[in-house]
Task: structure prediction
Amino acid sequence: MSVYFDKQTGIFYLESNNTSYVIKVNRFGFLSNLYYGKKIAREDLSYTEVLRDRGSEVAIYGAPERKLSLMGMSNEYPAYGKGDFRECAFIPQSADGSRVFESEFEGYEILKEKPPIDGMPSLSGGETLVLKLYDKISNVRVKLFYTVYDDVDAIARRAEIENLSDSPLMLNRAYSFNVDFPDGKYRVLTQHGAHLREREPEITPVMHGVISVDSKRGATSLHSSCFAALLEGNADEDHGNVYGFNLIYSGSFKLNVEQSPYDTVRVNGGINDFDFSWKLESGEKFSTPEVALVYSDGGVGKMSRTFHDLYRKYIINPRYVNELRPIVINNWEATYFNFDIPKLCSIIDTIKDSGINMFVLDDGWFGKRDNDKSGLGDWTVNEQKLKGSLKTLIDYCHASGLKFGLWFEPEMVSEDSDVYRAHPDWAIKIPYRNAAPSRDQLVFDLTKKEVRDYIVEAVEYNLKKYDIDYVKWDMNRNITENFSDGLPADRQTEIMHRYILGLYDICERLIKGNPDIFFEGCSSGGGRFDPAMAYYFPQIWTSDDTDANERVKIQYGTSLCYPLSLMSCHVSICPNHSTNRTASFATRGHIAHLGATGYELDTTKINESDLGQIKGQVEQYHKMERLILEGDLYRLENPFEGNYFGFEVTSKDKSQSVITCYKTLDMPNNAVKRFYPKGLAPDAVYLIEETGAKLSGSTIMNVGLIPYFPWSDFATVVFNLTRVK
Ligand code: GLA
Result:
């Protein structure tokens, strides 16, 4: 049992192994957050709610004192319009145009099973607390759902809004959550990025005013992540209180961190309310996406390990999450659009006995598609270009001991395609305006059922016709001119969210409907890397940038929230196609091993020495693969802060560990660099395979390991540790 209610004090205690989250129904009927953090005794924390006369502030409505201010009150779901001038969670608009929600506590329920969200992915889980707020004048109910995970220090939250009135209700903002923290010194960790440069961490002091991260693109985006963490005091990678927030949503989002004039700090967010409103008809409900809250008393590193455990246990498809992954060779960087079956077979011939066991045919196999200007949406095999049938290629793969995977971009359509010529109204655009160009493609209007049906049918036709074990699902443009002629004028601001609901519908039908096929997600690299996508895709292509030096940064950033097993990481050709940089084949392998490893290069063109290394690399990967799937990640060196990068992945039972050390630039006469592992058992004795030394966990962690890096830039050393005592 993880939810307790003390009827006498009106206090709810939500408890995981190490966390308490305490909410009180206060005397004004508000849900006030009294505490979130390290586990404490179940005591009466009412004394922490100190409300004051705040001079010129507006008084709490209904309060006999007529002085106390809402601005000093913490609130689990603050609404706009009654004197809390901080960023609120909720702005409803009644039929008369008024925009107020006077929240009154209506009651609570404790559900044995966590109810799924209709139409949206969410964490699985058990016992769930539902707190009900009601506004009797507008006749609107808000239900707040809380699920506590005993075994991982995480809480899932969301809100559901019910219009019980006779008239439509406009939702101008309906966030997933709000948490108010007491005054203190905090910094906020967020992520920014771009194509080929995803998820760079950034830490900013929390200030009076609002710090926001968001996406207005209709996708989580390459440019920001639906994640923010509050770092208390001097919290760092390994120490201190850290509170992580990650939205389980794939569309336009917003997360705010605001310090009030009275120094309290508010964090909230959900669907981006920029260019958003939702018309909720009488009797209808609207559910927000879910958010995962993680508390760590061991810095950012422990927060990450908790997110990893949470997602591996409760959102990634259990069928695949711990399954050994296929070792892929993908032809994109090898051939781009320029291939036919003989060319592809020549690549397959070179890697036949290397341990690579999945060939993935990327973009260009369908319709008229020799470049990115045409063909999307026409999902019929172009046999003329291939110089044969797809079956011939698949048979060749099978005869060579490889399974077969195929690329699709289901959500997109080229203007130069048969399907667009037949159905120009199936794309998101404004009919009498030119569409803003992006990769010469448009976005299918997933708000329309007939469009979703077409996509499912066209993709599934191939999945049924051919023997396909793996699908790479790409998405390469953001939404502009977000207009749908299928929606009335007063619902045009619903498109971005309706698009995402449409996306989840086609994912549900295509992915859940074909459970034997392994689906990899992709979006111009890692442009839609979020927990909701992780529900459908056990692997996501992390970035189009496959340069080892850039990858250490991208994979470092991605690991803040997401487990290594979720990140697809490929060895590619050098000079690298994104950076023109050269790293050794060994380095490229070592960095690709820190995720779901694979290859993406023309193996007919690489030298014998590199080609010969593939088999050994695959064997090496298999030795550590369980750790990548199930182990704990410790980040040892931050490549954004210095010349080195270090990841330690250690098994939960601490019997095996792999430590990957990376040096960016060689420096003559520099210090002897040590790496300090963190997650070993201090009293255990480990054999270090590479040196033959046997040392205690305590010695290795305190004295450190000294890698003898090869004499070059972009060099790696890997230590394999096995517990021998
Ligand atoms: C995107 C993907 C790449 C590749 C191309 C194909 O950029 O991220 O991996 O699939 O599309 O067009």
Remarks:
- The longest helix spans residues 608-630.
- The mean pLDDT is 97.
- Residues 332, 362-363, 407, 474, 476, 522, 524-525, 541, 544 surround alpha-D-galactopyranose (CB under 6 Å).
